[in-house]
Design a protein that fits this description.
Layout: E1 4-10, H1 14-23, E2 31-34, H2 47-50, E3 69-71, E4 85-87, H3 97-100, H4 110-118, H5 126-136, E5 137-139, E6 153-157, H6 165-176, E7 192-195, E8 197-198, H7 209-212, H8 216-219, E9 224-227, E10 231-238, E11 241-249, E12 252-263, H9 266-276, E13 279-280, H10 282-287, E14 294-295, E15 308-314, E16 332-336, E17 348-353, E18 365-372, E19 380-382, E20 392-394, H11 401-422, E21 431-433, H12 437-443, H13 447-461, H14 467-475, H15 481-485, H16 488-498, E22 533-535, H17 550-564
Parallel strand pairs: 1-2, 1-12, 2-9, 3-20, 5-6, 12-22, 13-14
Antiparallel strand pairs: 3-4, 6-8, 7-16, 10-11, 11-12, 15-18, 15-21, 16-17, 17-18, 19-20
Helix pairs in contact: 1-17, 5-17, 6-11, 11-16, 13-14
Bound molecules: flavin-adenine dinucleotide.
Domain Glucose-methanol-choline oxidoreductase N-terminal: 91-114, 266-280
GO molecular function: flavin adenine dinucleotide binding; oxidoreductase activity, acting on CH-OH group of donors
Protein name: Sorbosone dehydrogenase
Length: 566
């Protein structure tokens, strides 16, 4: 492999794989893609990745970064030093998040992108980005001015026939409350219950960017090289021009030179690469003993997520998903408008989850899992004490009162819906759900966990009228939902403890004008004050879209690639 290329892309995730495919369409351009994780090819896609049920892929330690602990909530505590940390999932594999995520495929509201333009990202308003949302997708069902028919990423909706009785009961209860069913999450932006739009093909198999974009024909291009299990360590600079990067793979370290280097390491790792290389908040870099090359305060700031929590219930046998069929666990979502002053329409998202996890206990758990789809809280990514190690990530969820109030209201609404469904007798009394350490431990897809949770499930089923109580003992933490929703203070404190994200980290190298001190790049992803360097991934988002963010990230990569080609 040549040590000098035209374009070096570091990070082969949702965005990086798209860039590699698009930029190598020009045969005179030598492109090198460097990915820290392993390769994925269509012919031998691991079952967990291909499956329509994604709940094994994102627990697979071979596909994700290890040791990435983050702080989510706790912003209401008096003593900030006691805020707890928890593991956070980020992909480490070609295709990145698109290979391990929950497969949801939606775009957000047109106003999300008009907001980007207003925030200084010129050229990113809805009517400029819609052509790229259409370009990336192959909608298997719908056509018209909002949909694409020929792109690399298939999108389809989970059919009603795949709804479990639990999901059907929840949708029926929402209908009783006057909430209409709508056909298309990616259609006109309105409230309602939608079948989940998912990145699944005709055979209900996931198509990550590693295979949808990096097809055998693309990989065969002589001007494209893909290095997997190779990590970018830091950028190489001559003054304020980036001339390449230091890469480490099994053969050791080497320097690759490039006319242009593009960071596509995701919203947690791209700012880290910048900071390690001397581009970032001056004081922070100095504290870590790093020479400041370009002081840019916004690097690592503006970290965004969708703050979330859930209400669970024990599913009696008739309410469950079929055991062996690999179906998606979220057949439908409920979008609603909180109506809180200053928040836009459709700012809340509720997933109707028909199995809590892949295993025996998870199969017996249904959930309403809700999140603030238009969130205002902002956190930050900084370097760890050892700059070469894992970063410090503090999401500061619920630091904005609007997010806290809406999450509290969502918890009450979810509790009320599940209480009404429970009256029908197919599910037990609802309880607050939290992602405990125990739940995480049992989430790892191992034989031992399958056995233990299978036995736990049988014990619950065999306990007759006490099933719900035993289930509560095994999966709950003793908090009573009815007490919680009746007490503002208790509910707020509880959410502060359990709030988590949905792996939608974004915004840490946001686009904006050069005179905006919080902006890191211009509206083409070029880092302000540095030549030869772009960022292109979820870091670029100025504000968080009201959506799962895989399609928005792919859209960003499609659009940046087209801007590079002029
Ligand atoms: C568990 C999970 C569930 C999710 N569910 C959904 C969902 O259902 N729908 C949805 O739309 N979105 C979902 N998302 C979010 C979405 O998948 C991500 O936001 C999106 O993939 C981000 O794309 P990216 O290109 O910014 O980063 P990534 O896709 O994370 O890509 C970054 C890549 O860079 C590599 N990398 C990092 N540092 C280096 C380095 N130094 N050298 C070399 N390589 C490096 C990483 O290994 C990774 O492959 C989910 C995400 C996760 C993690």
């Amino acid at each position: 492999m040549a040590d000098a290329v035209d374009v070096l892309i570091i990070g082969g995730g949702s965005a990086g794989s798209v860039l590699a495919a698009r930029l190598s369409e020009r045969s005179s351009r030598q492109v090198l893609l460097v990915e820290a994780g392993g390769d994925l090819v269509a012919e031998s896609l691991p079952k967990a990745v291909a499956s329509a049920y994604p709940g094994r892929a994102y627990f697979d330690p071979g596909l994700i970064w290890q040791g990435l602990d983050v702080t989510t909530g706790g912003t209401g505590r008096n003593d900030p030093d006691t805020r707890p940390t928890m593991p956070y999932t980020q992909a480490r594999v070609l295709g990145g998040g698109s290979a391990i995520n929950g497969i949801g495929a939606n775009r957000g509201a047109p106003s999300d992108y008009d907001e980007w333009e207003a925030a200084g990202a010129a050229g990113w308003r809805w009517d400029s980005v819609l052509p790229f949302f259409r370009k990336l997708e192959r909608d298997l069902e719908l056509d018209g001015s909002l949909h694409g028919k020929t792109g690399p990423i298939p999108v389809r909706r989970i059919p009603k026939s795949q709804r479990s009785a639990f999901a059907a009961d929840v949708v029926a209860e929402l209908a009783r409350r006057g909430i209409a069913e709508r056909p298309d999450q990616n259609g006109v932006w309105e409230d309602g219950v939608f079948p989940l739009a998912a990145n699944l093909d005709e055979d209900f198999r996931r198509v990550p960017t590693a295979t949808g974009y990096l097809t055998p024909a693309v990989r065969a291009r002589p001007n494209l090289t893909i290095m997997t299990r190779a990590e970018g360590l830091k950028l190489v600079l001559a003054g304020t021009r980036v001339t390449g990067a230091v890469i480490r793979d099994v053969a050791g370290e080497r320097t690759i030179t490039a006319d242009e280097t593009i960071l596509a390491c995701g919203a947690l790792h791209s700012p880290v690469m910048l900071m390690r290389s001397g581009i970032g908040p001056g004081e922070h870099l100095a504290e870590r003993g790093i020479k400041v090359v370009v002081a840019r305060r916004g690097v690592g700031h503006n970290l965004m997520e969708h703050p979330s929590a859930g209400v669970a219930a024990f599913l009696r046998p008739g309410a469950r998903q079929p055991w062996l069929t690999p179906r998606h666990h979220i057949p439908a979502i409920w979008r609603y408008s909180s109506g809180l002053a200053g928040t836009p329409a459709g700012d809340m998202h509720v997933a109707i989850v028909t199995r809590g996890s892949w295993h025996g206990m998870g199969r017996r758990m249904g959930l309403l899992y809700f999140w603030v789809n238009k969130a205002y809280g902002r956190g930050e990514v900084t370097l760890g004490d050892d700059a070469a190690g894992r970063p410090k990530v503090d999401f500061r969820m619920l630091s904005d009162e609007r997010d806290r109030l809406r999450l509290m209201d969502a918890m009450r609404q979810a509790a009320s819906v599940l209480q009404a469904v429970a009256a029908g007798g197919r599910i037990g009394a609802p309880l607050p759900a939290r992602m405990s350490d125990r739940a995480r431990r049992f989430g790892a897809p191992t034989f031992k966990n399958a056995l233990l949770t299978g036995l736990g499930g049988l014990a619950v089923d065999g306990s007759g009228p006490f099933a719900t109580r035993l289930f509560e003992r095994l999966v709950g933490d003793g908090t009573r939902l009815t007490d919680l929703v009746a007490d503002d203070g208790a509910l707020s404190a509880y959410l502060d403890e359990v709030v988590t994200g949905v792996w939608h980290a974004s915004g840490t190298c946001r686009m904006g004008r050069a005179d905006d001190i919080g902006a890191v790049t211009d509206s083409q992803g070029r880092v302000h004050g540095v030549a030869g360097l772009r960022v292109c991934d979820a870091s670029l988002f100025p504000t968080i879209p009201s959506a799962n963010i895989n399609l928005p990230t792919i859209m960003v990569a499609e659009r940046i690639a087209s801007l590079i080609d002029g």
